């Protein structure tokens, strides 16, 4: 059983507490914003047709299995980057960050190719109509090409930027691109242009491109490196 001594808690300074809160709040807001955004996407897809909504749900379930590697790498990058920044080795943090970005791009190409080739076989596991199946395969092919970018975004935002103490920018990058680009394009495609769901999904992918551009620019600036525990 873990024993907590009161005198240990007394070593937590007000400055450290403030930094923890300042880092924690953007992460919480980021997750809330992200969850609400995907709920709104579901509304847009559902208004196109029941078949469109079914196709998107199938493809999300399959694609998420391929993105698991990204969340694993994000956790690893957050630990490694945060550790070296805390040790005052900022040059190593930069080195690790770009190595993870390159690894994500390479791994994303491999996973994307795998998804592209197995898409028909995996989609056929679901008992759906021919139209839903055909649409699902098309969306899976779209996702296959965007996986390298999505993996890079997951690691850059969830891993590197948060691990580097730059949770505020991570929140802005994900929240603003989703709500100013992704969500409006989803509704424009579904309600104004009345496009088929696969084209709406393709429009929404502009969010991932913008997110990647913002993340890369931030990483190049080195402003993301923030030692949140130094001198507290």
From TrEMBL:
Transmembrane segments: 20-45, 65-88, 100-123, 135-161, 173-193
Single GO cellular component term: membrane
Keyword Membrane appears in the UniProt entry: yes
InterPro entries given in the database record: MATE_fam, YsiQ
Pfam families found in the cross-reference section: MatE
Organism this protein belongs to: Ruminiclostridium cellobioparum subsp. termitidis CT1112
Protein name: Na+-driven multidrug efflux pump
Domain of life: Bacteria
Keywords: Membrane, Transmembrane, Transmembrane helix
GO MF entries: antiporter activity; xenobiotic transmembrane transporter activity
């Amino acid at each position: 059983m873990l024993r907590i001594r009161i005198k240990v808690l007394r070593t937590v300074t007000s400055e450290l507490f403030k930094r923890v809160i300042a880092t924690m709040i953007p992460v919480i807001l980021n997750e809330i914003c992200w969850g609400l955004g995907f709920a709104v996407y579901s509304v847009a897809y559902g208004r196109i047709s029941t078949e469109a909504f079914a196709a998107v749900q199938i493809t999300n379930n399959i694609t998420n299995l391929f993105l698991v590697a990204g969340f694993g790498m994000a956790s690893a990058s957050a630990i490694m980057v945060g550790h070296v920044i805390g040790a005052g080795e900022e040059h190593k943090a930069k080195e690790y960050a770009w190595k993870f970005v390159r690894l994500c791009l390479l791994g994303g190409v491999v996973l994307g190719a795998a998804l592209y080739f197995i898409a028909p076989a995996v989609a056929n596991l679901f008992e759906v109509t021919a139209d839903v199946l055909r649409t699902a395969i098309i969306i899976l092919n779209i996702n296959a090409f965007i996986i390298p970018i999505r993996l890079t975004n997951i690691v850059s935002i969830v891993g590197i930027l948060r691990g580097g103490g730059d949770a505020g920018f991570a929140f802005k990058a994900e929240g603003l691109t989703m709500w100013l680009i992704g969500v409006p394009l989803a509704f424009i495609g579904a309600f104004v242009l009345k496009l088929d769901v696969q084209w709406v999904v393709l429009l929404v992918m502009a969010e991932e491109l913008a997110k990647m551009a913002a993340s890369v620019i931030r990483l190049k600036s080195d402003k993301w490196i923030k030692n949140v525990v130094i001198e507290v």
